[in-house]
Design brief:
21% of the residues lie in helices and 32% in strands. The protein is built from five helices and twelve strands. The strands form two sheets. Strands 4, 5, 6, 7, 8, 9, 10, 11 and 12 form a nine-stranded mixed β-sheet that branches. A three-stranded antiparallel β-sheet has the order 1-3-2. The longest helix is centred in the last third of the chain and has 15 residues. It is globular.
Length: 227
């Protein structure tokens, strides 16, 4: 399965909830969903993920991450693609050796504040000198939020800001009364997205229904696990 669609006007929040629940994601006005893709190690089987915010509980490792970043300022506001965000994006993109991201516009569209397909909010993380260390963007539905893109300064890798921004998204979505946070895709095969599987309240989608059980490993077609 490989499907693409485009929004030409704002979508009702309840419609966004329904689309995310069917495995759709969006970058700007472009919606997409696909069940397989090519990875360095071969064919990857895509697994949409979400977190049930009612069942989510912090692990001790996640608590340590939040304590490590207690000195930082975290704010939510309107989405911005300014010089500071662009500089942070390019610093973050330098970490990648494959599937290198090209621009913030590729993820947010050219006018992320226009409301198409939905409201987008920006989470900004700064130190006490006002230096921007991390940013993430989320789409807002009625009973759900969807993570769109996150980036952080590689110099601050010891802070685990990729995990921290997701934890702050979870906290803010809960405060907004949401039931779900759709935090992206992972694969049945091992990949650098496996950290997304390490959250309590995790659910995964088999392209027909959602499951609360652990994500099953890929098989070799003969019933054996792929390692």
């Amino acid at each position: 399965m490989n499907e693409v669609a485009f929004a030409t006007e704002p979508c009702e929040p309840v419609l966004m909830d329904a689309l995310w629940a069917r495995g759709w994601r969006h970058f700007g006005p472009m919606f997409f969903r696909y069940s397989e893709t090519d990875l360095v190690q071969g064919r990857g089987h895509v697994i949409p993920l979400r977190i049930d915010l009612e069942r989510f509980r912090l692990s001790e490792s996640q608590r340590r991450t939040l304590r490590r970043n207690a000195d930082l300022s975290v704010t939510f506001g309107l989405p911005v693609i300014g010089d500071t965000e662009r500089a942070l994006f390019h610093a973050h993109a330098s970490r990648f050796r494959e599937n290198i991201p090209t621009s913030l516009e590729a993820f947010l569209g050219h006018d992320p504040g226009c409301g198409t397909p939905c409201e987008i909010r920006q989470l900004s993380v700064s130190d006490d000198a006002g230096r921007l260390l991390a940013v993430s963007y989320v789409g807002v539905g009625q009973g759900a939020w969807s993570s769109i893109y996150a980036m952080f300064d590689p110099v601050e890798s010891h802070r685990r800001l990729g995990i921290a921004t997701l934890l702050w998204e979870i906290e803010s979505a809960r405060e907004a009364g949401c039931r779900w946070l759709y935090h992206g895709y992972a694969f049945r095969e091992p990949s650098h997205y496996d950290y997304k599987k390490g959250f309590t309240g995790l659910e995964w989608y088999d392209w027909e229904r959602w499951h609360e059980s652990p994500v099953p490993p890929a098989t070799d077609g003969r019933g054996g696990d792929v390692h």
